[in-house]
Design brief:
Blueprint (H helix, E strand, L loop, with lengths): L2 E6 L5 H10 L4 E3 L14 H10 L3 E4 L14 E6 L2 H10 L9 H13 L1 H7 L2 E4 L4 H13 L3
Parallel strand pairs: 1-3, 1-4, 2-3, 4-5
Helix pairs in contact: 1-6, 3-4
């Protein structure tokens, strides 16, 4: 078993894939929840240190500017990616997260996709097309967790 970081732009389906993995019995943490991200947009480093020290088998989901500090503690960094038009369509219609509902936030997502996603791609050990079905994406991540991929 191993640790996997699932990252990508808003609207790629990170939370959906994470939910499927949790349903399958894997330990998961969505850092968009429960105050993992501090006011400056970074992970709470001491809390993440504690989490990673206490779990050998784990999937963490999130995209923050200091995540690279933890890459060496994950066996796999999986980038979910999709074209900007797909991301914008998804965030406009979702009900589980309000981010992306305004024109300003959608412009931000477009900007981040062009500027931040290439940085995430450089740190990723695997990139998956987020247009695939969530169950298929979960299958791939589960394979990484269990050593089958």
């Amino acid at each position: 078993m191993s640790r996997v970081l699932l990252t990508g732009m808003s609207g790629t389906g990170k939370s959906t894939v994470l939910g499927e993995l949790e349903r399958r019995g894997h330990v998961t943490v969505d850092t968009d929840d429960d105050d993992w991200v501090l006011g400056d947009g970074a992970w709470d480093e001491s809390r993440m240190d504690t989490l990673l020290a206490s779990h050998r088998d784990l999937v963490v989901s999130g995209t923050v500017h200091n995540q690279g500090l933890f890459y060496d503690r994950f066996e796999h960094v999986v980038l979910l990616s999709a074209p900007i038009d797909v991301l914008l369509e998804r965030v406009a219609g979702r009900t589980n997260n309000p981010y992306g509902g305004t024109a300003e936030e959608q412009a931000e997502i477009s900007h981040y996709t062009l500027t931040v996603e290439p940085l995430l791609r450089r740190g990723a050990t695997r990139e998956l097309d987020a247009r695939r079905l969530p169950g298929e994406l979960a299958d791939v991540v589960e394979g990484l967790l269990t050593g089958r991929s």
